[in-house]
């Protein structure tokens, strides 16, 4: 068994749509970034790469490369999963915590779990997504952006 940990953060950008876990969240500010800025998927990808010791998201999809401008992070996750499988691992489960003051995540959690499970080709029971606020502390608590932590467990096939 191999454990991996991923982290990501993005600041809000009112001019963009919000995507978290591959799901479009309506009536919320989007996130600033080179790709579609899906912080949840980025943290998941880093947890997967970390568990497989395959580097990090920046080494696979550098933001200096215009190829990844406005990239669909769902496609990046599919690529990452392919590499993890290719390296001889299967995904056992992931557990992610999304921290933001807005929007409320709970109404979207089931859709996000289903979408991440679909992208990783695992059952939804292997995908946990939890939403929290930062209790108004620091910049995240001031509503400036979103922070995501994720752990992933892989098994060697
Ligand atoms: Mg990111």
Outline the secondary-structure elements.
Layout: E1 2-13, E2 18-20, E3 23-25, E4 30-31, H1 39-52, H2 57-60, H3 73-86, E5 89-99, H4 109-120, E6 127-132, H5 138-141, E7 145-156
Parallel strand pairs: 5-6
Antiparallel strand pairs: 1-4, 1-7, 2-3, 5-7
Helix pairs in contact: 1-3
Bound molecules: magnesium ion (MG).
The site of magnesium ion has 5 residues, from strand 1 and helix 1.
Report on the architecture of this protein:
The chain is α+β, with helices and mostly antiparallel strands and 157 residues long. It has a single domain (2-156), classed as 2-Layer Sandwich (60s Ribosomal Protein L30, Chain: A). The protein is built from 5 helices and 7 strands; from the N terminus they run E-E-E-E-H-H-H-E-H-E-H-E. The chain has helices at residues 39-52, 57-60, 73-86, 109-120, 138-141, and strands spanning 2-13, 18-20, 23-25, 30-31, 89-99, 127-132, 145-156. The strands form 2 sheets. Strands 4-1-7-5-6 form a 5-stranded mixed sheet. A two-stranded antiparallel sheet has the order 2-3. Strand 2 (18-20) and strand 3 (23-25) form a beta hairpin. It is globular. The model has no long low-confidence stretch (mean pLDDT 96). The protein binds magnesium ion. Magnesium ion binds at residues 8, 10, 33, 39, 42.
Short description:
Helix content is 31%, strand content 31%. The chain has 157 residues and is an alpha+beta fold. Helix 1 (39-52) runs parallel beside helix 3.
The CATH topology corresponds to: 60s Ribosomal Protein L30, Chain: A
CATH class: Alpha Beta
Hetero groups in this structure are: magnesium ion
The average pLDDT is: 96
Structural class: alpha+beta
The total strand number stands at: 7
Name given to the CATH architecture? 2-Layer Sandwich
Name the beta content range. Answer: 25-35%
Q: Helix coverage percent of residues? A: 25-40%
